[in-house]
Structure formats: structure tokens, C-alpha cells
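pls ignore typos typing on phone
protoporphyrin IX containing FE + seq
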Amino acid sequence: MGDPRDEVQPAEILRALFTSDAADNPYPHYAKLHATGEACHPSQWSSVFVTGYSAIESALRDPVFEVPGATGLDESFPAWREHPSMSKHSVIDLNGAEHTRVRGLMSGAFSHRRVASLESAIAVTTADLLDDMAERGANREPIDFMAHFAYLLPVIVICDLIGIPQADRETFRPLAADLVAGLLGERRRAEDALAVADAATVRLNDYFAALAGERREHPRDDLVSVLVQIHDTGDGRLSDAELLANLNTLILAGFLTTTNLLGNGLWLMLSDPPMAAGVREATIQAADFVEETLRYEAPVQMTVRRATAPAEIGGLPVSAGDQVVLLIGAGNRDPRRFASPDRFDPQRPDPGALSFGGGSHFCLGAALARLEATIAFPALLARFRAITAAGEATRLPGLAFRGFESLPICLA
Ligand code: HEM
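k done
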């Protein structure tokens, strides 16, 4: 029998961590959890929480821990099948052989060549958005970096990647925003957020089905055309439902995450002008700055797995069916893995953050997200001599996604 006092402490820290105040700064809570071990499972909590870098990394690689997918939802939310936005046909929700099959097809379509071919489009979009910001921010008029840059660049890049025609983009953008709203259900009532995401999914599915039909007739060099060809090989390699679900997942997985990376990076520069000067003068490489931003302020702070059999994690026994919460944001600040983890150091000799996950579900868009941010930050600094904070920034609600709703700035 362990000392019952051992259990009290993590339970209290977790309670504090999951209050809305802590979402502003979860790091002191993570530090306290690190002091208690790599994982904890207080008796009052239904999930196991994993905070240690090495335990998170092992769990991501261990097939005994599956993404919850359909099985997990059957247990936690049996009505999920009535909600179009909760379709579980995409790569991010599949396990085992099904995941390997769909992931193989998706990563073929998402090749290095395709990502590299987006580079010039990203540079052009960035320059256009910066021109627009310059106009809006003339005479030091405060503007919101999130609304006028960080929320726009990633979704335009996803349109370029998928192959959404210019003429359709004004219709597409609000649908993408509504789809993502489902992820942030905490601010509205959760049911309302789900209804908004469901309606957006139905319209996006109709839109993507029509676009797929168009590309079947007139293929282009875009991701929809490649996925349609894979779908049409006739051996059932990518079903209708999988085609649509994976396109929706690209929006869900690629939009808010990259938006947060851009917002977090700018916020760090605003808080540390000498560091911003280093990036501006290229004494700090943009790629190093982006990598450390990803570690220090992980856009995705947590992901979830479900144990399919009795197992062990961070020295703790886990039962079959247990939900396991992997606190990526905490793993990135684990003092057992990173020297002075709470210091922002773009030149740190020990990179290797968990921000894009790991193992078989490692982020398919990591190269694309890095490319966007590595183009955007130097362009932003080159375009404006001075960028300063202009009032209070508003953070996203909740702990799962770390970023800003608004980040007002003045430009010169
Ligand atoms: C900074 C930006 C991004 C971050 C922090 C991020 C983070 C992540 C993480 C943590 C996972 C693993 C989830 C898990 O194992 O449970 C993941 C998976 C994924 N991401 Fe990203 N992501 C980013 C950008 C993107 C972009 C731009 C795209 C595509 C346009 C994308 C597409 C995906 C897909 C398809 C998966 C699922 C892969 C699979 O399940 O096999 N991500 N991402």
C-alpha cells in the first residue's frame, strides 16, 4: 500500500490545472506534476495523466495505447454516430491495419514534393496578408494579428494544398472556421458547438463530393485529384466516407494548430524584444526559433489514448479500457529531458519536442506547418520595422489548444 498522501498531491494539482485560470499559464502546474513522477492516476479521476517526456513518447509508440476512435466513443458518447462531425473514418481516428492503410494512402498524396511545391504560394500569400496588415495598421492603428494574419494564412495554404478554386474560397473559409469551432466547445455550450460543427461538416462533405467529381473529369496537380485517383482504383482502397473524412481532417488538424504556432511565436517576440531582434537580424535562425516556439508553447497541449490491454506507463499500472491523457505541453517542459525547460532558448542543444506527437500518428502536416512559420516570421519582421503589443491579448479557452483568440499589435 502506498502512502495515501502520495495521491492527494497530484489530484490537487490536476484540479488546479483544469480550472480556467490555469489555462493562461499551465506551466507551474506541470512543474509540480513533474515533481510527483511521470504519470498519475488519482482515485477521483477516471483518466490516467501522463506528464513525463519519456512516458509520453513510449505511449505514443506503443500499440497497446490506441486512439479512442469509434470504440472509445461508443463508451463515452454512444450518440456520436448521429453527428456528422464525429465521423471516425479519417487517419487520425483509426488504429491498426486500417490506420496503416489509410495513412499510407494519405502520406503518398502528402508527399515532400507536394509540400515543397507550396513554398512560393505561401510566400505570395504571406506578402499579400502583410500588405493588408500594413494598410489596416497605418498611422499606428492597432490591428489584431490573429484575425488578419494567423487565422488566414493556414486556411489559405490548406485551400492551396487541397486544390480549392479561388472562386470558392469565400464560401469555404467560414465553413472551415465553423468546423474548428467544434474543437473549442468550451466557450459556447458544448451542444451548440457540436451543432455548428455538424452543419459545417454536412456542407463541406457536399462541397468536397462535388469537387471530387469535378477533378475526376478534369484532374489537376492537387491533393483532391490524387485522392480521387486512389479512390477510383476500384479495389476499395479509399471509400467515399474515408475520402471526405480525410479532407475534413486536414482542415481540423491543420488550421487552428498552425494558427496557434504563428500567434505563440509573435507573442514570444513581443515579450522579448532582444530575441525578436536576433530573429530579425538572423543571428537566430528562423527555423530554430520556430522549433523552440513549438516546444515552449505547444499548440496542441494534450492528446488522448485508450489502453486496449493491461499495461504500464511511467511506472504506473493501467487497466484495459482506461483513458490515458498525454500532456504533450508538460512533456515539452520535463526537466528530466530538457535542461532549464522553462527557458526559451532557440539554440538549445537538446531539441526533440513532442509537439507533433510521435509513433504511428506522427503529424502528417509537420513539414508544412514548419514551412509556413519559417516563411512567415522573417517576412513579418522584414516588412515592419517595429511591432509592439497594443493592449490585452485574449487566450483561447481551455487547456487542449494553446494559442490566442486575439493579439492586438501596432506596426511601424
Ligand atoms: C503547428 C502546427 C501543427 C501541430 C502542433 C500539429 C500537431 C499534431 C499532433 C500532436 C498530432 C498527433 C495527434 C495524436 O497522436 O493524437 C497530429 C496529427 C496529424 N496532423 Fe498535425 N499539427 C500541426 C499542423 C498540421 C497541418 C498543417 C496538417 C495538414 C494540413 C496536419 C495534419 C495532421 C494529420 C492528418 C494528423 C493525423 C496523422 C495520423 O493520425 O496518422 N497537422 N498533428
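Residues 190-217 form the longest helix (28 residues). The two ends are 64 Å apart (CA to CA). more later
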